[in-house]
Design a protein that fits this description.
It is a single chain. The protein has about 575 residues and is of the alpha/beta class. The chain has two domains: about 325 residues, Alkaline Phosphatase, subunit A; about 100 residues, Gyrase A, domain 2 (2-Layer Sandwich), CATH 3.30.1360. Strands 1, 2, 5, 6, 7, 10, 11, 20, 21 and 22 form a ten-stranded mixed β-sheet that branches. Helix 11 packs parallel to helix 13 and helix 12 runs antiparallel to helix 13. The radius of gyration is 24 Å and the shape is globular.
Length: about 575
């Protein structure tokens, strides 16, 4: 009898809980959370290139939304996967674990690409990274084509929406880059990204057993192929641009078949770099948008009382910045084209979901450095390119090798932001690892172009002075994944060699030009305007949580932006 009574009570309680949950969902005005990340959109660039905007994109967000003009990443390694995951989790890489685009696995002694996972191969045939044509050196390092979010050690805001709302919630991430899609989709969502080798959108078996019919249909449309024989044309007369008279700058990358001046031809679909050329132009963002629009319709996002989540990461600004720099005609026109892409997106969401039912937040994973050549053209004697290939042969390191009795290499390799020591040589000589790593860091700081170097041993033992830079490095420090020595370059210095290609601009430093990003909110009850107080990107995820009334991501360390949650 007790069992029957107990079972009845449990059933009643479950029924009441379900009813309460349904009531809470029904009360929520927001049916869709749209999180937009623009890769490498430095905080000043929106205003800088605003003369070329229309009414429906950036201008609409600025007029109808709340723009935090002094927003920053507080971690030191301002790279793509680090920034995306921080925006998704509301915590630092020290906690969420995505400390760099690449790190060394001490168990296998192999460099690991951030979202690689052999247990979850790509769905379908092909679609993996083609090492012969891939220009992203981090993806080339992956030892498997499989991908998953498993390396993320905390929940994301998408996860928490799914946990709170339940199975009715739909969570997705879309990008050209796998890491841009996977990090925001989180553990509970589904991610799709653009395969340059396959010329289509792909995913892995961690998300799907088979592609949904609508994905096959989209891939069958041949959207990338529609750019064949076309070019990236300048959208207006040169005199309408800030950099209209600077279309051919000596420091820009002359990519094969693409050139340094407008128009930039895409070539034929069978061209070696056809799909690559699409991604290093506004076409990459346009392709992602086209896919996202089909996703919204096919998955019925925002069509019921349950809150759905969609992340869209636009990558072209980053690729264009690497090749041409943020102060270039290409960067300026790309942002104008992105403005039109955003206008298309907002109009589509308004039609299909209603902006009155949509919470939008736009930010960036990092900023961008200037090209040293551009700085020097303005008589600014700063900035330069650093090459680690010869560090082991510098006078200081050679002296240390002689002192320690190391016959071979003391420095094994560098992959931003970490220098890796030859631990085998150190162990073979019976040397004190802490002392060696500290001495190498001291010698690195003497080299032109390096501002600061600190060993992970000193970080782990709190043997560092408390400064703004060391705080940013500690926010990045994860004892399991961080390398032996963290290296910070002087402002506007960076490693320019990308697996045989010398880039124009880069990112990855704690300096303001890399940490400063926009944060713009638009949604029901949000008061429009510019907000000058300093905020951090770790604040984004907990603010979404507070706005929706859902649990914070598990590692969240940010503060709620009360201007967003205190609705009018």
């Amino acid at each position: 009898m007790r069992r029957i009574v107990a079972g009845t009570v449990i059933a009643v309680m479950a029924s009441v809980a379900a009813a309460m949950a349904s009531a809470q969902i029904a009360e929520r005005p927001v049916r869709l959370v749209l999180q937009i990340t623009v890769d490498a959109l430095r905080g000043d660039l929106i205003d800088r290139y605003s003369a070329g905007y229309g009414k429906g994109g950036f201008r609409r967000l600025l007029e109808d939304g709340a723009f935090y003009v002094d927003a920053h990443h507080r971690h030191a390694n301002t790279e793509t996967v680090v920034g995306h995951t921080t925006l998704a989790t509301g915590t630092d890489p020290a906690v969420h674990g995505m400390i760099a685009n690449v790190w060394l696995d001490r168990g296998t002694n192999q460099l690991v690409y951030n979202v690689e996972d052999a247990d979850y191969p790509l769905l379908g045939e092909g679609g993996g990274v083609d090492a012969k044509t891939e220009i992203d050196p981090t993806q080339k390092l992956a030892t498997t084509q499989g991908r998953s979010p498993r390396a993320i050690r905390t929940t994301t805001i998408g996860d928490e929406i799914a946990l709170s709302v339940g199975p009715a919630a739909r969570v997705f991430g879309v990008s050209v880059k796998d890491r841009g899609a996977i990090t925001l989709a989180g553990h509970a969502g589904a991610a799709y990204w653009f395969s340059k080798s396959g010329g289509r959108m792909v995913t892995s078996t961690v998300y799907e057993d088979d592609y949904p019919d609508w994905v096959d249909a989209w891939n069958g449309k041949g959207v990338p192929a529609s750019y064949a024989g076309k070019s990236w044309e300048l959208g207006a007369k040169p005199e309408a641009y800030l950099f209209g008279d600077a279309d051919d700058q000596a420091w820009e990358v002359d990519f094969p078949g693409y050139g340094r001046t407008f128009p930039h031809p895409y070539g034929s679909p069978d061209g070696k770099y056809f799909t690559t050329l699409l991604t290093i132009s506004p076409a990459g963002d346009e392709i992602v948008l086209d896919f996202a629009k089909d996703l919204i319709v096919a998955e019925n996002l925002g069509q019921d009382s349950a809150t759905d989540y969609l992340s869209i990461s636009f990558s072209s600004t980053d690729y264009v910045g690497h090749l041409f720099g943020p102060s270039s005609l290409e960067a300026e026109d790309n942002l104008h084209r992105l403005d039109r892409t955003l206008a298309d997106l907002l109009a589509f969401v308004d039609k299909k979901v209603g902006l009155e039912h949509t919470l939008i937040v736009l930010s960036a994973d990092h900023g961008a450095s200037e090209a040293p050549g551009y700085l020097q053209s303005l008589s600014m004697q700063t900035g330069g390119y650093f090459n680690f290939d010869d560090v082991d042969k510098t006078e200081g390191i050679e002296a240390l090798k002689a002192e320690f009795g190391v016959a071979g290499e003391l420095v094994d390799q560098f992959f931003q932001p970490y220098l890796y020591l030859n631990r085998e040589a150190i162990a073979a000589r019976g040397l004190d690892y802490a002392a060696v790593s500290r001495r190498v860091a001291e010698e690195l700081e003497k080299l032109p172009g390096i501002s600061y170097a600190v060993s992970s041993y000193d970080l782990a033992t709190a043997a560092v002075a408390e400064t703004l830079v060391s705080a940013a490095i500690l926010a990045n420090f994860n004892e399991d994944r961080s390398g032996d020595i963290y290296v910070v370059f002087d402002p506007q210095w960076f490693v320019a060699e990308f697996d045989g290609m010398t880039v124009t601009g880069s990112h990855g430093q704690p300096w303001t030009y890399d940490s400063h990003v926009p944060i713009i909110w638009m949604g029901p009850g949000i008061e429009p305007g510019r907000i000058a107080r300093r905020v951090e990107t770790v604040d984004v995820a907990p603010t979404i949580s507070a706005y929706l009334g859902v649990k914070y991501p598990s590692g969240s360390r940010g503060r709620v932006m009360t201007e967003i949650t205190d609705r009018k």
